[in-house]
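User: Hey, quick favor. My workstation is busy. Could you predict this chain's structure for me?
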Amino acid sequence: MNTKEKIFDVSLDLFSKKGYDSVSLREIAEEVGIKKSSIYSHYSSKEAILMDIFDYLTNLLEYDELLNSKDLDLNADNEMLLENPERFYHKGSEAIKEMFSQEKNLKIWKLIFIQMHHNDAIREFFQIEILFKPLMFWEGFFTILKENQIIRPESNPELLAKEYYSFPIYLILEICVEYDDIPQSSLDDFFKQTEEHANFLIDCVKVK
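Assistant: No problem, here it is.
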């Protein structure tokens, strides 16, 4: 691991545990084992480190092989989506679970959830990447199901997307508040509960 990577990892660890605004560049440098001035060879400011963290997660969401597999294509030609929407959800859940298995990624999510009300950049990232884009995806998911008469015609895709997505958001917030270092058992329970909720919701609106 080179010095820039160490600065990234140490900053992320401190930000996710103490809060972005409570961490100084001097503290980061001390944890890395370098002088504060040495940080400027890699990052122009503390905010530049934060932006690098966001860029890392954004690129992961856009280019991760599992998250962007053809099985998760959101279109009416996706046989899995039409024939077994529960399986479609499960594939997506497994991809997110794989991402969460990396401690670095989990710390970024925790940083975003805990600090979104204390920093404008974090709040904006949360609104776009964690709320808006996933909600648009799931609204499209339910729209396709409705158009193909898999769910009832009176179903509202926008409301279903919010219901579908709000439960896992609540659970991950609950976990982040409770733990500094999130145990694997809590993550396993999180994915179990979210999938049970997703399957229940689909079953409630499916055409019988």
